[in-house]
Each structure stands twice: as C-alpha cells, then as structure tokens.
Amino acid sequence: MQAFARHAGNTGSTRRPTRSRALVRDCALSLLAALPVLGAFADDGDRPWLDTSQPFEARAAALVSQMTLDEKAAQMQNDSPAIERLGLPAYDWWNEALHGVARAGGATVFPQAIGMAATFDVPLMDRISKTISDEARAKHHEFLRQGQHGRYQGLTFWSPNINIFRDPRWGRGQETYGEDPFLTARMGVSFVRGLQGVAPDGSPLPESQGGKYRKLDATAKHFAVHSGPEADRHTFDVHPSRRDLWETYLPAFEALVTEGQVQAVMGAYNRVYGESASGSKLLLRDILRDQWGFKGYVMSDCWAIVDIWKNHKIVATPEEAAALAVKNGTELNCGETYAKHLPVAVNKGLISEAELDDALTRLMTTRMALGMFDPPAQVPWAQTSISVNQAPAHDALAREVAQESIVLLKNDGVLPLSKDIRRLAVVGPTADDTMALLGNYYGTPADPVTILRGIREALPNTEVVYARGADLVEGREDPAATPLIEPQYLRPEAGATERGLRGEYFTSKDLSGEPVLVRVDAQIGFRWDRGSPTDNLMARGEAGPDNAVPNENFSIRWSGQLLPPVSGRYRLEAGANDGFRLYLDGKLLLDHWEDAERLRADSVDLDLEAGRAYDIRLEYYETERDASVRLAWGLPGAKPTFDEAIEAARSADAVVFVGGLTGDVEGEEMTVNFPGFAGGDRTDIRLPATQQKLLEALHATGKPVVVVLTTGSALGIDWAKENVPAILVAWYPGQRGGNAVADVLFGDVSPAGRLPVTFYKVDEKMPAFDDYDMANRTYRYFEGEPLYPFGHGLSYTTFDYTDLQLDRDRAGVDDAITATVTLRNSGQRASDEVVQLYLRPLAPARERAVRELRGFQRVHLAPGESREVSFTFTPARDLRHYDEEAGAYAVDPGRYAAELGASSGDLRIGSQFEVEAR
C-alpha cells in the first residue's frame, strides 16, 4: 500500500463515517466474510478492498463503506481526488480514443471514425481497436511510472460515438459511423470489444491474456437521440416518434450493450420527451437497465447536469439536478455538480446516502475490474510495454486503414494517374494542411504525411508544383495561407550550421524561470489540440505530456537569425492562439500579448537585404486548449495565391485539387462562424465558395483535374460530378493519409471504400435541421434521387454477381435464412469489393424503410477470381419493426426481397422469400 499512498494527492475530508455508513461497511464486510476464501483479509485486515481473492463488487462495497459523504460525492465526478487515508489515488475518468488515443501526447492516429466506417471492414476494425487499446494501456502505465494521474491518462475511454448521422449539416457527424443503424452497430461492437480486451467473437480472453481484468472501458455515446444542432444542444427537447426512436436511434446502443458488453454509456445534453438525456428515467432505467440488462455505469456529458436546472429548467436548483440524475441512473458526473451539491441533496432529503453508495460501488467496481487496485504483476494488461506506442506496425496499419477508407465517387478513365507524368500540379487549401488529416479528438502523430507530401514521395522523378490557391472558407483569416519560413533561411545563432530557431520552453506563461526544454525547431508551425500537441509541418519532438512541458499555461521563446535569399519587400507574419510578440533586430514589430479564442495572425511589410543576417525572436504563451503558433513570410514578387495556382495548372500535365473541409470549421460547438458554417455545423452543404471558384478556374485551363476531398461529412458537389473526370473522398485520413491517397491516385491500391452517408444534391430541400423525424432522411427514408447513394464506391476493376441462392423461400419468424451469391472479378486488376445485402418488404402493411442494410462483407479478388459470399439473417432480428400500438417490436408476415449489390443504389441481384405468421 505504500505505492498507493506515495502518489495519493490531496486527502479530502477526513470526517469519520456516520452510524449509517458504518452499517453499510459492516454489511460489506459480512458479505466478504461469506465468500469462499477463508481468512482472505489476513494480509491487510483493515483494508479488505485490497484482497485480490474476493469479487470486485464486494471489494468496492467495502471501500465505499469507509468513505465520508463528502468523499463519496467527490468520487462521483470525473476528476476524482485521492483519499490518502484509504490508499485511494486520484483518478480522472476523462479519456478520448475516437480514432486513436487522443490528447495524451504521441499516439497512432487512424482515419476519423467516419473514414473507418467507409472501410465497411469489421475485421479491420478489430485490428484498429486492439491497436488503440494496446497503446492506451502502455501509455497509462507509463504515466503511472511518472506518478501522473491526470486527465487523458487513465483507462476509461469516452468512445465510440454511435449517434446516427441523420443530417449532413451536423459538425460532429465525422465522429460517427454514418447514417445506418446496422453499419454503426457492427463497427461499434467491434470497436468496443477491441478496447475492452474481448475476442472479436465476444468470448472472454484466457486468464494469461488478462481474462480476469478488462483491458479498458469503452463508452457508448451520446445516449440517445442526439445529432445537433450544436448551438442548441444545451436547450433543445426532441420528441421523435416511438418508431424512429426504436428503429433508428436506439438499435446501435442496444447492440453495444447486449453484444459488445460495453461498460459505460454517456448521456447527451439535450432533453428527450422532456427529460434530460443525462437524467432520463425512460432512457437510463426503463430501457438501458430494465430492458437491455445493462450492468455498467452511466456518465453525464460534460456539464450536462448543470443544464438540467440552468438551461432545461427541469428543476430549480443544482442539488435537485444532482439528485434527479443519480436517482435515474447517472453514476458519474463530468463536471462539479455532484461533488458540490450531492451532500446538500442528501442533507435535504432529496436522495439517500444508500443511493449514492449503490452508484459509487458500481464506479469502484469498474476501477477494480481494470486492475487499478491490484499489484501490476497480477494484471497481464499492465505488462504492455511503452514500446508498442506508435510502433512501426501501427503506422503501417494506419496507412492500410486510410487506403481502405478512400471512396472513388467518379472516374472517367483518368485514374489511376501514371507515375511517369512529367509535371503535376497539386492545388488546394487542404493539400498541405495537417489538420486535414486529423478531424477532431486526435492524438499526436509522430510523422504526419500530408497529401502533398504523399504525392511527392510517390513521384520522386516528377516535378510536383504546389499552390494553395484559395482559403478554406470565405471570410476566414487563415494564417496557414502564408507559407512558413523554411529552415534554410533560419539558424539558431550566428555562424551555426544547424537550420531553424532555438526554442526555449517554459512551464510559466511569462517566460520566467529556467527553460525545461531547449531544442532547435526547423520551422515554427505547431498545432496543439487541448494540450495534445501536433506538429503541423515537421517531424519533430513534441512539447507536451511526453516531455517536461505542461499541457497548458506554458510559454516558448524562439530566437536566432533570419537570412533573406533576395533583397526586396517582405511580409513577416506571426500567428497564434493566445499571446505572441515578434522582434527583428531588437525592435518590436508585432505585439499581441493577450489571450485569444482562436488562431489569429498579424503581419508587417518591410525591406530586407540579401546577404545580411537579422536577429529574430518570437515569443509565445498558451493559456488553455487548442493552442497553435506559426512564423511565416511572403517573399518579394510572390504572386497572389489564386494566380499562382492557375499558372501552375496551365504548366502541368494534370492537376490534383485537394480541398473540402477540416476540423477548423466543422466540429463540436464552435464559437466562431463563417459563411456556410454556424457553431461547428454547416448551413450550406456545398463546397465552400472560395474553393468552388478555384476548382472552376482549374477546370477552365483544359487540363485533367482530379478532385480529392477531405471532409467529415457529405458535400454537395454537383458541379464537380458534371465537369471533372475523377473524384475521391479521403475523409480525414489520419497520420498516413497522404501516402494512402497517393497509393490510390497512382494505382498501387484499387479503391474500395464505400459511402457511410448519402451525398445529396445541392438543391435538395432538406428537412429542418432540428427536426428529428426520419422522414426523407438517409437512404432508408429518402424519397428523392441522391447525388451519390449510401454504400456507393467505385473500383479500378469490375465485379459480376451471379447465382443468388436462398436456402429457404419460406421461414418462420425465428428461422435463419442464408443467402449465397457468387462474386467474380471480371476486370484486369486485383481489388476489394464490398458486397452489401439489403432487405425490404414487397407489400408493406405499414410505413417502413425503403430498404435496410442487413449484411456486408469486404472481399479481395484477383482478376478472374470467383468466390461464394454468404449472409445469414433471421426475420426476428433483421425484419423487425416497432409496433407503436403494442409498444414492442414485431415482424409482419408476408413477402420480402433480399437484394445484393455494390450500394443501396446499385443492387445487382435479388430473390424473394416469405415470412410466415407466428
């Protein structure tokens, strides 16, 4: 126990347990005494919760019984303080792992969740989630070795996001697995099992592999009926039809609970049928626990308990909100409401202390099951070496996943491009932007490869010219539009041969004290997401949790010499989120030493002489979250970026336009708005006007233009579909996205990604964003003609579907039906094909989805190769609908069709069968 006490921070209250608490303690001890192992507490009789021979729940109850009321309340918030007298170390439940361990320093960054969904590859997701959990375990134990117990350092991860991406305007749709409940469930179950250390088939792992202990905890969020608008998420109340609730919004959650055995569920901010989703009796008690048998714990979204009284006004006071949430099943509060107000609620009689004990015992059981209280030697997962983090095999997997995620929307024969091309122009605002790889909720990749870099690495003998051409969106002051000062024009001191500037990193905001890190940074172009640094331009060491620099409240001084290549008028530009100052030869040129909500830049024009060295110094400080800093310049005679791009296109043999969106404009509840964007959501699904103008001008040069889109959602690209010969969707493709895009562009990989969302036409009149009725939404209910349908994706070869056979044409509700089809690669290239099974009623007796995905397999075939592909489904599971009158699922007897093909809009072969009445 000395190890626990050594790292236990503040002690909290030391008030002795009351009589009622003592009674709970005695009951817990009696329960333990009744267990099979006699005398199990002999080694530590006063701390029975440390007896590893006893069940986790009994140990947890014993520990809770020793806490005071104040201590219990504090343990029910995400940043749980240490209780030194009990040997309980501090623990923060808040961790993120959406597409790699996030916000905790270096980690492998896979494609964003929407990109992983586009692979339609569950076995691949098994490998991804296992890799993420390996890195998570390794990082956690490395943090413990350093005595750290902070945020983003634990074992409880708040992923995956399995909300249904019902509307393309939602900025957080990128975090989901798309618009279909079945695809979401299959990808989500795989992700949960991989994180929690369960075999892909759901069976427990052997004891030697950690079978007694869970590897991590995954969290299914946000439960339920939550998908924007972001600006209104703290106030709106949704009243979906019961049919939509049970047929669209709940199935993926049910699958993760009943199949995936997910250990945690996060409530949403909004109300559902008038109840806060983070304190809903219907959702959390009646459905989650009573109907689905959920055994884990529920947490609120961050500060959602505040919303219950402050914004939703369901109750009048914070103590009433805290009591309501706990009573209805939310054990853990992300925020401070529980710690501050649950003791008050108990004293006022709003909730009993026994109810707190029940909730907290569930939380402590979780920590026990993760091995947090047991000797590391007894926990196999604790032996995971830090060497697995960012291992070469993980980097290779990130590239493979990115390759599989890329969707070829259109190809008129221009792709794949020849590697013998003489001159290629790469143009567009996301071509050389690391943010276009990452999306949101990301970690720090060791060496992120932008699309420009990936193309250049693939074409060592080709002249690749690059021009940004346009800003990402209209009206956005985009510091990234100005090129960084390149390393050859910087040196850390007079006469130095090393290139770059000397960086001194301080643990204060005012550059005071001694620097804790000193290094030479080749370029100043960094982006840090909430304390998890990402170097935008160079593969350098990171300033963050893996080094001595704190996540927040730090400062940096870069100094050295600037060496202009030619004489003339230069524009020097600095940009940062929070304060910066720029000096040249000791003169203060730019002074913005104050906090800022977002990245902002300033510049100064001045004459510089070639052959002269100028002393340059950039000072910067960061307060909290979303830090960034850069040092850039415009050289004499530089053309405007738009004209430069058109000139590059005219002189090239072909053009690759790389544009779309980044996490800077679509994401979670943003305070900055741009034309077409509001609060992180979109008000316009079209390609931003700045980029559309550039794309049309590139097309007007007469050169073949290939469009590569970085995005987390569907884009209205009607003009591009009609006018350019080839279009790829790369999503936010992760750390090796640039290599993967190049692999597809030049034919090393045949694309086979599929759209997990419908792409709508620009002029499509969409339902109101805040309307949660599923009518005319997603491929399941959409009545119009999509621009590109759900499941769409082309290849560099062709596939034939023949000989569909059903093993029965009549079935009872509980009978299994197997469909088998022969798939043949009829083209000239090896490639994957995603075979998709859809079911639909032929004469529906009630309003139903047009068709529904009920099976998919990603199959690799060589040219001329054939293979039988089979799917098994049951009417009770796959043809059920929600009967609102009966208040339960039902299956209508009658005729149905099983249809197979390459997308929901390209069904190649079908057969009919009949479901008999019970």
From TrEMBL:
<keyword id="KW-0732">Signal</keyword>
<dbReference type="InterPro" id="IPR036881">
    <property type="entry name" value="Glyco_hydro_3_C_sf"/>
</dbReference>
<dbReference type="GO" id="GO:0046556">
    <property type="term" value="F:alpha-L-arabinofuranosidase activity"/>
</dbReference>
<dbReference type="InterPro" id="IPR036962">
    <property type="entry name" value="Glyco_hydro_3_N_sf"/>
</dbReference>
<dbReference type="InterPro" id="IPR002772">
    <property type="entry name" value="Glyco_hydro_3_C"/>
</dbReference>
<dbReference type="Pfam" id="PF01915">
    <property type="entry name" value="Glyco_hydro_3_C"/>
</dbReference>
<dbReference type="Pfam" id="PF07691">
    <property type="entry name" value="PA14"/>
</dbReference>
<dbReference type="InterPro" id="IPR011658">
    <property type="entry name" value="PA14_dom"/>
</dbReference>
<dbReference type="GO" id="GO:0031222">
    <property type="term" value="P:arabinan catabolic process"/>
</dbReference>
<dbReference type="InterPro" id="IPR013783">
    <property type="entry name" value="Ig-like_fold"/>
</dbReference>
<dbReference type="InterPro" id="IPR044993">
    <property type="entry name" value="BXL"/>
</dbReference>
<feature type="domain" description="PA14">
    <location>
        <begin position="496"/>
        <end position="649"/>
    </location>
</feature>
<feature type="signal peptide">
    <location>
        <begin position="1"/>
        <end position="42"/>
    </location>
</feature>
<keyword id="KW-0378">Hydrolase</keyword>
<dbReference type="GO" id="GO:0008422">
    <property type="term" value="F:beta-glucosidase activity"/>
</dbReference>
<dbReference type="InterPro" id="IPR026891">
    <property type="entry name" value="Fn3-like"/>
</dbReference>
<dbReference type="GO" id="GO:0009044">
    <property type="term" value="F:xylan 1,4-beta-xylosidase activity"/>
</dbReference>
<dbReference type="Pfam" id="PF14310">
    <property type="entry name" value="Fn3-like"/>
</dbReference>
<protein>
    <recommendedName>
        <fullName>Beta-D-glucoside glucohydrolase</fullName>
    </recommendedName>
</protein>
<comment type="similarity">
    <text>Belongs to the glycosyl hydrolase 3 family.</text>
</comment>
<dbReference type="GO" id="GO:0045493">
    <property type="term" value="P:xylan catabolic process"/>
</dbReference>
<dbReference type="InterPro" id="IPR001764">
    <property type="entry name" value="Glyco_hydro_3_N"/>
</dbReference>
<dbReference type="InterPro" id="IPR037524">
    <property type="entry name" value="PA14/GLEYA"/>
</dbReference>
<dbReference type="Pfam" id="PF00933">
    <property type="entry name" value="Glyco_hydro_3"/>
</dbReference>
<dbReference type="InterPro" id="IPR017853">
    <property type="entry name" value="GH"/>
</dbReference>
